[in-house]
Description:
The complex is a heterodimer. By secondary structure, chain A is mainly alpha-helical. Chain A contains 9 helices and no strands. By secondary structure, chain B is an alpha+beta fold. Chain B contains 3 helices and 7 strands, in the order βαββαββββα. In chain B, the strands form 3 sheets. Chain B has a 3-stranded antiparallel beta sheet with strand order 5-6-7. A two-stranded antiparallel sheet of chain B has the order 1-4. Chain B has a two-stranded antiparallel ribbon with strand order 2-3. At the A-B interface, helix 6 and helix 9 of A face helix 1, strand 5, strand 6 and strand 7 of B.
Amino acid sequence: MFTSNPFAELSVFLPPLVMQVYIVLMILAVVFGTLFDMFHKSSFTFFVRQWKATKASATVPLSSANTASLAAQTLLKEVATSGEFCNPMRRLSHLLMFYGFLLYLITTVVMIFGYPASAAIPAMTPAIVPVLWNIGAVMILIGGYWFYFFLRVNVAHEGYSRFQLVRADLFILSLLSSVSFALIWEIVQAADNLLATKIVFGIYIFLTTVLFLGVPWSKFAHMFYKPAAALQKRVAEANGSSNLPRPVDVNHMGR
Amino acid sequence: MPTFVYMTRCDGCGQCVDICPSDIMHIDKTYRRAFNIEPNFCWECYSCVKACPQHAIDVRGYADFAPLGHSVRVLREEEKGVVSWKIKYRDGRVKEFTFPIRTTPWGSIKSPADYDAPDAGDLQSALLAHEPEALKVDRLPTLPPSNKNQE
């Protein structure tokens, strides 16, 4: 069950082209949703204005190599290892979701485009791809449910009920429900009940569509603006335009 | 001058929510980032400014008597036990101050929840909770019983 391509078995009732078109539509939804979000909230304008202000008040000129080095550091720390989180539990949960989502997304695309199946010619997907798809899904679920029930700041620090929903939950809830139904669909499909498979698959596609179409209203766009903010902070510290106090030499406290 | 949050820098850790004595630092329902829900009720204690590990909280005066253009920024360096302030005036002057904030290592103070709960008999004691051991002394000076008898 966990070593066979679940999308190949869809060909019993759905041509592979339909899923391929669906993936393209979802990619377009993310691209346009993010662009809409950036312009609607003026975050693009904000970052450009901040960037210009940072350059104008710089006291140490930065070369292109320096800026590239800062971008690489941002990529390594803030993006690849979620280094901005001060709470190690949140950092671990975020890393599980981040890498789980990447694994799940990449293997989904590989299975749908690389091994399109039809009922007449069963595709031979290497077992490692669906195994990685399942591992990615489980990583998202572990990190996601841990975050949802125990680490959400409004639950952990504001005393909200775990079941009280706010708009900020749209992203995490649609992600968790979509991935949960992906695994349920895989299990139901293995049970060879075509009607149940169709129903669960329909719910899975609906929730996945909510996840990607909800980009302008959810926190999805943070994937793009958080690295931009982190890079801007590093550049401001490096070129002397940061308005934060200088770190102290404790042996010479007087200023 | 009440506080406000730079939303792009906040990572939603909730430390300002915990420390605010006025309970006005809350979490935004759309972006799950902290914000000051009622600047008029800000005590201006700057606890949140100092507590924020992301340096995401700044202060600004009310526009009628302190038009924008100034800034008050804080850098807390836990391992050094100091907090530094950088005050920028509207005319461009900048002043920086550094203060020691503690005499013991960061994180070494036990929170109240780490102590055993006192029993009901402690209500009869003149000592406060966890005294005298929390003060690292054997006993606290009290009036000798003989003084009381003389009254």
